[in-house]
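Notebook, bench 3.
Goal today: get a predicted structure for Exodeoxyribonuclease 7 large subunit from Halomonas chromatireducens so we can plan the truncation constructs. The sequence was checked against the plasmid map this morning, with no discrepancies at the termini. Length recorded as 446 residues. Pasting the sequence as submitted so the record is complete.
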Amino acid sequence: MPPADSPTLSVSDVNRRARSLLEQGIGEVWVEGELSGVSRPASGHIYFTLKDASAQLRGALFRNRARFVASPMRDGDRVKMRGRVSLFEARGDYQLIAEAVQAVGEGELLAALERLKQRLAAEGVFANARPLPYPPRHLLVLSSPTGAAIRDVMAVLAARWPLAKVTLIAVPVQGREAAPALIAALGLLNRQHALDPARDVILITRGGGSLEDLWAFNDEHLARAIFHSRLPVMSAVGHEVDTILSDLAADVRAPTPSAAAEQLVPDRQDLLRRLVSLERQLQRATQARLNREAQRLDHLRARLRHPGEVLNRQRLTLGEIDARLARAMQRRLADDQRRLAQLRQRLVARPPRREVEQAGIRLAAARGRLDQAMQHAQTRQRERLAGLVRQLQAVSPLAVLGRGYAILEDDQGQVVRRAGDTQPGQALTARLGKGKLRVEVKKRME
């Protein structure tokens, strides 16, 4: 026992020491059990009891962490929780301060989903990034007709862009039928696109829910159908913290259905404000232009002269030009007359007849030299041609044939050079010095 004079601790001191020992001694752990007594007060915190067959543990999930839990926490759910063991000093309650909640079995499911996500990413299924028409001419919405998502989308479209044309294609968005129905609807819309090109955007949307509620949108075949869609696809499934395969395969992802509608169409109020601003800018620019043109008009008016004054000035200028032209013409005429007289004197000094006679003499001499050169050239060419004829006859095979030889040819016109190239009974042609003979091989002697 502690001595009687030991310091006395307050209840707060004891609880503070107990909390420190629990937090430092156990630290952060994973705890598995069944939820019981789940309560959600107005503060946003979640209080619960985690129990197994022989014990129970109180716990709390504070608001700043509760918003990241996708699945709702309900009595009877079996979960795994990551957190630190602590103590609530005000009441002395021993408790688990949870940081993350995961349904039992969900870890394996998420691991399989992560493997599928990596495989599809490697195949390029998440590479779509086509721009969407803005605003779309005809929006096709794949969603539940009774869900909050379509109401949110229509409300935002009506407020921002009442001109939007929207067609709802009702499909289940939860359960086993959801993924096949969505795939079939995507295929039908893509086939109809050729008949109605005005249908230019597909929106796939639904509200938030648990991982099981949204699981249809993690279907591999649905992700591939979205990737192969000829129409651009926007996906807005679940809340902002939910990231599923259909979001990744789509061309554009929106965090919520309302955000999707806001991204698809402009805000008419913004456009009206912009139009008003542009109108004011146009008015200011127009007024500034009018002011500048008025100043320019005043300047031109100040420079403007009376037409009579301009005509008198031009008349004086014209008289000066006329006088200069007359003087220039007289000088040109006098120069031409002097040049003509000089040419006449040169013509008298050297009459053209003498030049023609001399040219005739030179032409006759050149003609004689040309005739002699042509005769010499013809003689040389004849002699050269005769020599070439003699050389050709010397080497011509026809000259050899004239001395009694013959050339044998087969039916293809090929010359037979060896006896081995023939066969007994083969017909050949013998070319002689004059004429040809048709012969037949009787016997081959090699």
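The chain has a mean pLDDT of 86. The two ends are 139 Å apart (CA to CA).
Flagging this for group meeting.
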